[in-house]
Specification:
Number of domains: 1
Radius of gyration: 16 Å
Order of helices and strands: HHHHHH
Strand content: under 5%
Structural class: mainly alpha
Number of helices: 6
Number of strands: 0
Length: 161
């Protein structure tokens, strides 16, 4: 890992940690932090000499995928189930990690959220209901962190990342 990798990783991880704490407490991901992460990811890709178009595509696909999921859920259930902040954070993950990493980010986030829910149910005895609120931002941030750090350390080469 180069000095540039360390600096970029520290910047990204700090922002993701701040967002996780805010979302955990308020169920909100503020635009003031999520939106600047999108161009920052493109700048990071450029600084690292990676194909910029893959990171631009990652941002667009990340945002679009979660907006489609959000709207589909709302049509199906008649109420919101995913906040737009999650889509913006996933877009940021796409610009930082690239389009090819989006499935990894979402898989890590989803599996960790499911594990958290199961542990909470076992610990408290309370069942998660269809209308239970769950802050997804912390899990999405974890997925982004795993993908970004994994790429920097060549730990995800088996996945083509």
């Amino acid at each position: 890992m180069t000095g540039l990798d360390l600096a970029l990783s520290a910047l990204l991880l700090a922002a993701l940690l701040i967002l996780a704490v805010i979302d955990w407490r308020t169920y909100r991901l503020p635009d003031a932090i999520t939106l600047p992460l999108i161009p920052a990811g493109l700048a990071a890709a450029w600084l690292m000499g990676e194909p910029l178009w893959l990171h631009e595509l990652g941002g667009a696909l990340g945002y679009g995928a979660l907006v489609i999921l959000e709207k589909g859920y709302e049509q199906l259930r008649g109420r919101p189930g995913l906040g737009r902040g999650d889509a913006k954070l996933f877009a940021a993950g796409g610009t930082w990690c690239g389009a090819m990493a989006l499935p990894t980010v979402l898989l890590v986030a989803s599996v960790m959220a499911i594990i958290w829910i199961l542990v909470q149910q076992l610990a408290t005895g309370k069942q998660v209901q269809g209308d239970s609120m769950i802050a997804f931002g912390p899990f999405l941030g974890l997925g982004i962190a795993v993908a970004f750090i994994g790429q920097r350390l060549n730990l995800l080469a088996f996945a083509g990342l």
